[in-house]
Amino acid sequence: MDDVLAGLDPEQRAVAEAVRGPVCVLAGAGTGKTRAITHRIAHAVRSGVVEASGVLAVTFTTRAAGELRQRLRALGAPGVQARTFHAAALRQLTYFWPRVIGGSAPSVIESKLPLLVEAARLVRRTPDRAELRDLASEIEWAKVCQVGPEDYVAAAGKHHRSPPIEAEQVARLYEAYEQIRRERHLVDFETILELTAAVMTEHQEVATQIRQQYRYFVVDEYQDVNPLQKLLLDTWLGGRDDLCVVGDPNQTIYSFTGASPRYLTNFAVEHPRAAVIKLVRDYRSTPQVVGLANLVLAKSRSPHKLELLAQRPDGPKPVFAEYDDEPAEAMAVAQAIRRLIERGVPAREIAVLFRVNAQSENYEEALAKADLPYVLRGAERFFERPEVRQAVVLLRGAARSADPGQSLAAEVHSILSGIGLTAEPPSGGGKAREKWESLKALADLAEDLAAEGGDLPAFVAELERRAAEQHAPPVEGVTLASLHAAKGLEWDAVFLVGLTDGMMPIIYAESPEQIEEERRLLYVGVTRARAHLHLSWSLARAPGGRRSRKPSRFLDGLTGRPSTGSSSRPSGSRASSSGGSASSSSRERRAPAGPITCRVCAKTLSGAAEQKLGRCATCPSDYDEALLAALKSWRAAAAKEAKIPSYVVFTDVTLQAIAERVPTTEQELLSIAGIGRVKLDKYGEAVLSLCRGEFSQAPPDHFDL
Question: Could you give the CA distance from residue 17 to residue 40 in angstroms, rounded to a whole number?
Fold first, then answer.
């Protein structure tokens, strides 16, 4: 057993030796949480605390589950079940369905979109594909929160949801979708969890058999658990507490999907005798990167922050750079990437991370112009690409009649050259380059396996294992990804781009909770970097545009420059390196230092909507109805011109607050919760004109935005 514990730091060893639950591991970025929990499981199995077959380790992605199984095999615990919530539930549901329900188990749908198209026809709507995706996400949120169609409207209002269409229409579509799904004997991912919990609850013999099988539970990424997953976990446990959960409150970035960090942060409340162990030694990043990550969170109001302690030697300081416009920022990033590659950093060890996928276009173009290969993460999965599927079919066929004495690498190269692999990559970017990179990744993987003595049948088996676990081989290209898609990954060099107020935090993040989640999202981006970290923003969208943007408020005091951007600075880029030191900015000083109280009855306000209004919802209000009508008319015109939903301009609650307070200065407008510097720059002049009564002389929709 000593070899299982050897090489662990004191905190990791404490996790490994805590072989009985309940155990809560608060693990910061890069602190070796997977190492700690796999060694804990192996130690428990090898010391006789539990049989390997009695362990269920649950995580959120197929790849993470595959990695857990691989590590556990290496540690001498090959019989442990490591699965995603959905895979474990589906296995159980499929097994017990014929016995307790009868007939064949329902079929699983991979995507809600086809059924939503049919549901839309039933309710006489014709949403476009983007709207359908948003509707699918909204239905997923409702289902994981256990909200049915009949309760959706009330729940959406309570949780301040901003659905893509009217809440009543979402409810109708949701109901039609569920009707079609049930009639066709289909289940989606949420229904799999729901039905598994229901079958266990309603059939005691099923619950007994599952609980006799699994006695020891480990749940990774516990900060991302949603109410439906928690329901299933509790059903599996059946009142037992041999449970170890692992998570990082600093990396809670999926609240909008229904995930709740409270299950992690309140674990010791739910389980009073729980052991709580913190992992804070960061082995991934240099002290300079770790220092900046800690500073990003320094102003967070969360009581659950983990401050990381860097374990690596010193590296370069983070670079902060400001550019005149987005194309200039993208080209500068491409040139900086070229310099890193020339200095020996592999392209696959470099990432460009942005807030929304729409930001990738400039970087795709800039990297293509610089003849730098790139991979767009979050697009098509590697093993689902047409060229990869074709290659696997050809390799599988060749493996049936393979000559044992033939070189694996030479054989694979010969097969792949027939479908497009060449000695040198095609010039430029686009689909041709992507196809070449995919085939080259397969060829490189074959060379690695050949060095270990593998043959073609073994190579095909390895590809099939990787496909099942979604473990793609590394592609030699710069990764382009959203910050959400980058979670769980790491690179030698990371470029965080487009860091302006309005994008980071995103413009529709208005409540204090939403702003804090945006801060954590930036923290996730920073902690993806091992050594090189470049943070940048641009003052305008296009060349020659108005340079009115400001750097993200989360960077205030960290960049070595004044807290706010200035459009009067000279043209060109301005870069600086800084270790950073936390200090307040004018924007962050606007936030009240203490509790917000009702201006009518002086009661402390807790809800975001009440804080925005500055009064209790039940307290009387006095506002100019004509002003509110003018504000709504102006908002509709502004949204139409910008081709965005009205709520993105200002929510109804914000307009109500403006009509009640009637601000006449920029400072008074900024004092209203939900109105920041970005919205002030965009809409302040028009709103203040309306508040001064100028709407009586000029229709609101004539204001020039």
Answer: 6
